[in-house]
């Protein structure tokens, strides 16, 4: 029996397929240790998915952390070659509060990063791989795109103080048009209201926003979004929409940001975007784009497949011929069945069928 024929758990199949997908596009695997200095995370805590970080004091007195994120470590260790990009993917355990249990958990995180002289092609490639990654998990997916340049330009046009600007951005993220009206009495907020209402296919949304993005930074950002969605459509990637309620921290992100969803899971399972500002904050004169997939949220996928721990429970007695037991196990595995041979029925074991050895 070929090793590829052994049944894998759903998340194992996903990881195997994603690794192959990323390698096809020239991404190399990034490996890292379990620990980083806590200072790396405390300086960029707003970038982290979870605020919780598990810390300990090393023997030399340094405060260390079990890594809650991979991207920061990749940036820290990134090497730069003028005119080139470094393409990395990872399958790493991170340690943070799980979105499903709300307790600290060791979570497998997978994703990729493209760092260096990132241009339009690289941006399109990464977003395409994000969509294809979702398709590997489930063909019923949606990838929503936003552009921080569009959002920022329309909000900047209101000329608000920092506090009001932050509140307006929060309202955009909540799709709260009434909140914007209350925050901006007497101001021309038609562009912001159009932004909140604009969600769906690019062919519908982009033309609707053109009147408010006719020049300057807003036009450049919308043109870039148009170029990316056109490229995705040319590749046959159709399950992509625009949703400007995706408003990431502008201290770290710029350009296109995106989130991915799978049917049956109420939260986003994939998150990514351009983070040139994070690169600058960490003293790296380069551009970057990437995404991460939160594997802990995928645990509920394939529950139907997991209704049974094994396909067959093979029961035998001490007096049964060992060769006969081994032969029975082999016959079942050669049929592609998962089997456990036991002398009694294990507590809580879920099995499709029970078979007794015939010596």
Which key features would you list for this structure?
single chain; 359 residues; alpha/beta; BirA Bifunctional Protein, domain 2; 9-stranded mixed sheet; 3-stranded antiparallel sheet; 15 strands; 25% strand
* Portion in helices: 25-40%
> What's the name of the CATH homologous superfamily of the domain at 1-117 and 275-307?
Bira Bifunctional Protein, Domain 2
CATH architecture descriptor name of the domain at 1-117 and 275-307? 2-Layer Sandwich
Mean pLDDT: 88
Structural Rg? 25 Å
The assembly state of the depicted protein chains is single chain
Report the count of strand segments: 15
CATH topology of the domain at 1-117 and 275-307: BirA Bifunctional Protein, domain 2
Main-sheet strand order equals 1-5-6-12-11-10-7-9-8
**Number of helices, where a helix is a run of at least 4 consecutive DSSP H or I residues:** 12
- Determine the N-to-C terminus distance: 24 Å
In words, what does this structure look like?
The chain has 359 residues and is α/β, with parallel strands linked by helices. Among the domains are: 1-117 and 275-307, Bira Bifunctional Protein, Domain 2 (BirA Bifunctional Protein, domain 2, 2-Layer Sandwich); 310-356. It has 12 helices and 15 strands. The longest helix is centred in the middle third of the chain and has 19 residues, at 216-234.
Layout of helices and strands, plus pairs?
Layout lengths: L9 H15 L3 E2 L5 E3 H5 L12 E3 L5 E4 L4 H7 L7 E13 L6 E13 L3 H18 L3 E7 H9 L5 H13 L2 H7 L6 H8 L1 E2 L1 H8 L6 H19 L5 E4 L10 E9 L7 E5 L1 H6 L5 E8 L15 E6 L6 H13 L4 E4 L8 E6 L3
Parallel strand pairs: 1-5, 7-9, 13-14, 13-15
Antiparallel strand pairs: 2-4, 3-4, 5-6, 6-12, 7-10, 8-9, 10-11, 11-12
Helix pairs in contact: 1-4, 4-10, 5-10, 6-7
């Amino acid at each position: 029996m070929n090793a590829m024929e052994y049944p894998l758990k759903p998340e194992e199949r996903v990881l195997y397929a994603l690794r192959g997908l990323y390698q096809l596009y020239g991404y190399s695997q990034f490996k890292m240790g379990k620990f980083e200095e806590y200072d790396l995370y405390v300086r960029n805590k707003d970038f982290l998915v979870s605020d919780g970080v598990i810390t300990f004091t090393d023997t030399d007195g340094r405060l260390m952390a079990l890594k809650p994120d991979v991207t920061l470590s990749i940036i820290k260790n990134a090497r730069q070659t003028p005119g080139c990009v470094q393409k990395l993917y990872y399958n790493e355990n991170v340690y943070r509060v799980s979105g499903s249990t709300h307790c600290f958990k060791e979570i497998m995180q997978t994703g990729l990063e493209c760092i260096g002289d990132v241009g339009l092609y690289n941006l399109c490639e990464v977003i395409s791989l994000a969509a294809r990654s979702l398709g590997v998990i489930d063909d019923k997916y949606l990838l929503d795109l936003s552009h921080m340049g569009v959002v920022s330009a329309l909000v900047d046009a209101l000329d608000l103080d920092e506090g009001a600007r932050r509140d307006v951005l929060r309202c955009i993220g909540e799709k709260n048009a009434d909140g914007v009206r209350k925050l901006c009495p007497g101001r021309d907020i038609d562009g912001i209201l159009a932004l909140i209402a604009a969600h769906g296919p690019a062919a519908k949304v982009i033309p609707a926003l053109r009147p408010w993005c006719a020049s300057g930074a807003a036009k450049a950002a919308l043109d870039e979004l148009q170029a990316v969605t056109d490229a995705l459509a040319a590749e046959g990637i159709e399950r992509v929409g625009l949703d400007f309620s995706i408003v990431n921290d502008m201290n770290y992100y710029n350009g296109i940001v995106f989130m991915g969803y799978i049917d049956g899971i109420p939260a986003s399972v994939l998150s990514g975007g351009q983070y040139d500002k994070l690169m600058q904050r960490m003293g790296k004169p380069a551009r970057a784009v990437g995404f991460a997939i939160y594997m802990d949220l995928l645990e509920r996928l394939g529950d139907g497949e997991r209704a049974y721990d094994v396909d067959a429970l093979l029961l035998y007695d001490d007096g049964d011929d060992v060769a006969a037991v081994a032969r029975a196990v082999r016959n079942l595995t050669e049929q592609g069945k998962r089997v456990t041979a036991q002398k009694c029925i294990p507590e809580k074991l879920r099995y499709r069928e029970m078979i007794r050895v015939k010596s």
